[in-house]
Queue: 2 jobs
Job 1
Amino acid sequence: MTPRTRAATLTLLSLAALVPLGGLGAVGAGASTHAGARTTTVKAVETDFHIALSTTSFSPGRYTFVARNKGQTTHALEITGPGLKNATTATINPGQSATLTVTFKKGTYDVFCPLPGHKALGMNVNLVVRVRARAPQPLMGATTTAVPGG
Ligand SMILES: [Cu+2]
């Protein structure tokens, strides 16, 4: 990587950092031309024995889960689903946090605590990743008048 391309990459990263994360659900509403280049942060608050996610609406893309243990015992966060393998944090002590970055595809994922028994006690969230409807984009060079019958 030449210094020049490196600088360009850094500039892009800086721009990405300036995009406000604000209102979950509003993410992706605007100029999200490169869905894969954007990482959405999701808070996962773990208690004894529950996992609360800061968002429940997911579309394909990259997500960083910030797992925070607000319980009295140790926990961890693991995610299974299409394309994921060994996506898990280390054990998280009470009061500590850990992050886990994953790439979601369309499909169903399971977010849970892998410590023995915790999943069965309720530390389990199923989430569905859906492809969001986009505004229709005209084909290159297509003209509406060429379509018979409208
Ligand atoms: Cu746990």
Job 2
Amino acid sequence: MYDPKSSKAEEFIDHAEILETLEYAHANRHNAALIDEIIQKARQRKGLSHRDAAVLLDCDIDEKNQEIYALAQQIKKDFYGNRIVMFAPLYLSNYCVNGCVYCPYHYKNKHIARKKLTQQEIRDEVIALQDMGHKRLALETGEDPVNNPIEYVLESIRTIYGIKHKNGAIRRVNVNIAATTVENYSKLKDAGIGTYILFQETYHKESYEKLHPTGPKHDYAYHTEAMDRAMTGGIDDVGLGVLFGLELYRYEFAGLLMHAEHLEAAFGVGPHTISVPRIRHADDIDPDVFDNSINDDIFAKLVACIRIAVPYTGMIVSTRESQKCRERVLHLGISQVSGASRTSVGGYACPEPEDEKSEQFDVADTRTLDEVVLWLMQMGYIPSFCTACYRERRTGDRFMSLCKSGQIQNCCHPNALMTLQEYLQDYASPATRTVGEALIAREMAHIPHPGVKAIAQDNLEKIVRGSRDFRF
Ligand code: SF4
Ligand code: SF4
């Protein structure tokens, strides 16, 4: 029986509830009166249930779809302004004991190069990332208790936070590792991680078991209940995601929102972020084998509907997507993007030789961070390197209540401008710096609180004179 408060995966992601939701959405896809009612509800900016959101996703009335896109755009603007938070992935190891059929790191793949970074190699990678201007990383490893035990991940986190190189610093380390125990999540919390990210891949249990035929990840319940254990272990901020293309997108959409509802019901805090990866070509992986791939139009609709359904949850799009596609979805709800990513183990400090490739997937957007920053600013966005909330202990329910009160805006905007100023001083090309300084000057006018504005102005001047790391 469907129960969002239950701690059992098959009760909070109830298959029958999803099927009924999809049926309900399909039956009401031309129901203008109901769609209007749901859009009105969504205008209150308190989010939508998975059932209501599923109706919007299925809606096939052109005029109503335009309203849905316009509303997503407005919610994005109201909650996130024109700021886009920047990050990069850092792959520590691609040793993996699982058999995921869509990932080239599956244990049967004998022709991909297997690598695990030493602490010195991690230092080299992080210095290369710092020299680009990154401040926020997402750590990635395969699941392998022998090669990648929790102690290795913890040691790597300590190494990363400990690196002081010129003006660079990694100020937030998010972690994307396999589902683990409450005890290990507590250790990650104590190591000072930001968000714990774990993609569900698919919420459809039967497909999940086929797509994960071997290894510990085969256990659907253990994987799906991971966020509960993470929160029990003290991690406040968790990041959800599915790999679009594995199952029917409507099913995944309902499952994703039910997972968010479960976290809210059971822990009082919804997910901090939702990622929307689509399956990509990789060594040993042909995306055409997976027949549930979604086109760019459906992808845009998914982003818009997630934005409306969970306004307080950040949304992430990675370099899996092309510049063109990223451009399309940015204004519909995306609040974080990666830039200049390498999806290989190593590769930031020095490129991998052709015969030693270890990428998890092909990157579609291959631009440098400077190019991504300039591109965002030319579209009117503020690339933000802010990591303030986690460092000010504004996580979990403290973060959410600040968001819900609207006060977060007084932090995000000046923090974005101050961290962008740091980037311009330390890493930007002359052309990017010129565009950035004009943008900061314009955007300062949009800080409503005079006291905050005066402090931010003073800090900007201090950054130009060499000081770093200011935050609200
Ligand atoms: S998706 Fe993760 S668990 Fe599965 S094979 Fe790839 S690295 Fe391993
Ligand atoms: S102030 Fe907090 S919510 Fe805003 S950008 Fe910085 S870390 Fe994110």
